């Protein structure tokens, strides 16, 4: 059982030079149907080979299971590695089955290279298909008419199941037109015009050169990706995760890649991109899910969120954890040698203060608290009982049941959620916030903390309290990222690939990621940056955002927090300049609205036109609902895909009845970040700008791919 679980196909095509192969001679007179038939023949050949590989992998897996009775540790380990590799191979072949072959490169010298979702070799180890992440595939994304990289023609192949449905060519060398047929009008425009489905798709077949450069940036240090709306920042970041896993799987799969987005709606939207690329191991969390056991979706009012997210909360939280728990007893009574000795409320308060001078984390200070109580009692007892001995006194009183019971109630183990809940008491919060918050803000924050569920900004506060209270982080230390070889606990891999993904999910407190990807980074508060910083102390970082779309009111404070969170090292910066989402009509309208309201705005170039102008309507209050209903019906008739209604949160109750079709979604302005619909109806835009700032209103105006309707109350 010592052989590898499969032929040499597991090696990457980047390791050798045989990345081109023989295909039928091109004929410039071929029709599209004839060219599709040629590509279908090659696609059939690849799938036939994949079927063979899958059968071999299943046989290897079954062979490994036949050795379940192995008792020698070395044999058990070898068996587990064998099963692990076979299971992983099967999972790779299954997850990337759809659209396996999507690209072809014809070179000046007549050679041909096909590009796909994974590398495949034939039975004599010649490359059939190059993995899109391999260096050999880079010309498919980077070759241009100016820098052709010896590419004469680039072809995108679109398939459904195993059938080639469409091909589209870009001719990069005009001199090759005499020998190469050119089919279609360009793959990118065709992809951009397709309907939206409510889930983000991968763009592996249409990655553009500037996007490819960002995807392939080194994993160490910090990669900063900026660009205006629609430039593909999010999908580039996700493809980057797949690329890093391909480049150094032992490091990034063992220690993990964390992908963080702004909301649960957003994470659902992007959730299938990485699995469609064959990667299931990255951990995806929204900002409301980065505290274990909490899934926050509630948005605070902007002024409350600005307080909760600011560093002003740090001294407030430190004071809060030092407060006496609400259920703590107010007096300690001890009988010693016939006399009653007491510590009253003021004296207990002084003892508590002395404990915090030695250990500021209450959950780690219980022993110190018991010692301090005994010292305070001894100082009362010694004058009355001069013959008492301190050591004997400590052993006697410190071991009594009533003393230990008092200590447990007076100094209990504290949970972050419990302590944050204390802030719902205006008196307690006011005491902790004295000198930091005005009275009306104390009232507003306390009212938010009285809610039955946590808000998204609360999650960062809970995580800060976790550290302040002394909950030890679950970390394996910095060196483990560098020393893991990816084989540990391989006997669990079968579970990881064939059971629910939750089986492999890391706890939200995990703090040893090898790489952290942060999307919509311009919106993160300082407290959220602190929370993320704990999870990537030794990580590489990819930070994605556009300052013009920010909802955070104090960008300098957030920038300082980001610099503290992201470890210092080499910085790789990439700027995306093309808007692939919005039609020119939609984006020019959004840009005209935003220019006078936002400074230093980055305006990418929209690459397509629809000849559908933006529609604006002002209606009386009693006509708003009928007008919106008509706009929704009109949008559903006009587009094949999805329709989004983006409205202020205060209007969601009255607008909920408009969502009567599964193609229609109603969201708030903050949840719309990163999402897109074929048609968007923006409701009461000025109210959005007033509540959340012009950056968020700009976001609302740039979510539509085809049609934008704006309806405002008169």
UniProtKB/TrEMBL annotation:
GO terms for cellular component: cytosol. Keywords: ATP-binding, Helicase, Hydrolase, Nucleotide-binding. InterPro entries: DNA_helicase_UvrD/REP, P-loop_NTPase, UvrD-like_ATP-bd. Residues 8-20 have a biased composition (Basic and acidic residues). Gene3D superfamilies: P-loop containing nucleotide triphosphate hydrolases (3.40.50.300). Residues 1-35 are annotated as: Disordered. One of its GO terms (molecular function) is ATP binding. It holds the Pfam family AAA_19. GO terms for biological process: recombinational repair. ATP binds at residues 227-234. Residues 206-583 form the UvrD-like helicase ATP-binding domain. This is DNA helicase IV. It comes from Glycomyces harbinensis.
């Amino acid at each position: 059982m010592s052989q590898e679980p499969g032929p040499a196909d597991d090696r990457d095509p980047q390791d050798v030079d045989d990345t081109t192969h023989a295909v039928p001679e091109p004929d410039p007179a071929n029709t599209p149907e004839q060219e599709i038939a040629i590509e279908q023949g090659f696609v059939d050949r690849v799938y036939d080979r994949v079927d063979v590989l899958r059968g071999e992998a299943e046989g290897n897996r079954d062979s490994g299971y036949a050795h379940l009775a192995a008792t020698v540790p070395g044999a058990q380990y070898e068996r587990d590695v064998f099963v692990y590799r076979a299971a992983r191979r099967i999972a790779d072949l299954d997850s990337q089955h759809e659209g396996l072959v999507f690209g072809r490169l014809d070179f000046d010298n007549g050679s041909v290279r096909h590009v796909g979702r994974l590398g495949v070799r034939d039975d004599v180890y010649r490359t059939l298909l190059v993995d899109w992440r391999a260096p050999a595939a880079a010309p498919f994304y980077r070759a241009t008419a100016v820098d052709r990289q010896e590419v004469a023609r680039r072809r995108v192949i679109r398939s459904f199941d195993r059938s080639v449905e469409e091909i589209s060519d870009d001719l990069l060398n005009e001199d090759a037109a005499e020998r190469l047929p050119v089919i279609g009008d360009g793959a990118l425009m065709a992809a951009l015009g397709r309907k939206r489905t409510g889930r983000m798709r991968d763009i592996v077949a249409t990655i553009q050169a500037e996007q490819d450069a960002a995807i392939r940036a080194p994993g160490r240090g910090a990669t900063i990706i900026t660009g205006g709306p629609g430039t593909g920042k999010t999908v580039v970041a996700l493809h980057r995760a797949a690329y890093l896993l391909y480049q150094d799987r032992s490091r990034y799969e063992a220690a993990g890649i964390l992908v963080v987005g702004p909301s649960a709606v957003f994470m659902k939207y992007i959730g299938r991109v990485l699995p469609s690329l064959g990667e299931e191991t990255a951990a995806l969390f929204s900002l409301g899910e980065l505290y274990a056991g909490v899934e926050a979706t509630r948005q605070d009012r902007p002024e409350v969120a600005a307080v909760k997210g600011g560093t002003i909360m740090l001294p407030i939280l430190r004071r809060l954890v030092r407060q006496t728990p609400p259920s703590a007893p107010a007096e300690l009574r001890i009988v010693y040698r016939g006399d009653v000795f007491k510590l009253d409320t003021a004296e207990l308060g002084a003892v508590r203060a002395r404990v915090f001078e030695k250990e500021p984390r209450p959950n780690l200070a219980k022993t110190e608290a018991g010692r301090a109580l005994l010292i305070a009692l001894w100082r009362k007892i010694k004058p009355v009982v001069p013959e008492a001995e301190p050591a004997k006194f400590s052993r006697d009183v410190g071991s009594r049941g009533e003393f230990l019971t008092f200590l447990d109630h007076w100094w209990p183990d504290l949970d972050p959620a419990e302590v944050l809940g204390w802030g719902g008491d205006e008196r307690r919060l006011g005491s902790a916030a004295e000198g930091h918050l005005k009275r009306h803000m104390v009232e507003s924050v306390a009212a938010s903390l009285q809610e039955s569920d946590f808000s998204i900004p609360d999650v960062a506060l809970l995580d800060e309290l976790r550290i302040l209270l002394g909950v030890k982080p679950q970390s394996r230390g910095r060196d483990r990222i560098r020393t893991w070889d990816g084989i540990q606990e391989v006997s669990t891999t079968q579970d990881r690939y064939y059971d629910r993904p939750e089986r492999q999910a890391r706890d939200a407190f995990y703090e040893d990621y090898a790489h952290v990807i942060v999307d919509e980074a311009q919106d993160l508060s300082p407290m959220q940056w602190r929370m993320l910083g704990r999870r990537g102390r030794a990580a590489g970082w990819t930070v994605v955002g556009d300052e013009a779309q920010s909802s955070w009111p104090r960008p300098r404070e957030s920038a300082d927090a980001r610099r503290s969170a992201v470890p210092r090292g080499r910085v790789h910066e990439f700027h995306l300049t093309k808007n692939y989402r919005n039609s020119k009509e939609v984006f020019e309208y959004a840009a005209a609205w935003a220019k006078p309201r936002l400074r230093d705005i980055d305006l990418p170039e929209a690459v397509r036109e629809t000849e559908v102008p933006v529609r604006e309507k002002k209606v009386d209050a009693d006509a708003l609902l009928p007008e919106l209903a008509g706009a929704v019906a009109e949008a559903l008739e006009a587009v094949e895909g999805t329709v989004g209604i983006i409205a202020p949160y205060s209007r969601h109750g009255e607008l909920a009845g408009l969502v009567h079709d599964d193609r229609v979604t109603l969201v708030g302005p903050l949840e719309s970040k990163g999402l897109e619909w074929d048609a968007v109806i923006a409701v009461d835009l000025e109210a959005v700008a007033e509540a959340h700032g012009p950056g968020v209103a700009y976001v609302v105006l740039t979510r539509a791919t085809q049609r934008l309707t704006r309806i405002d109350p008169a």
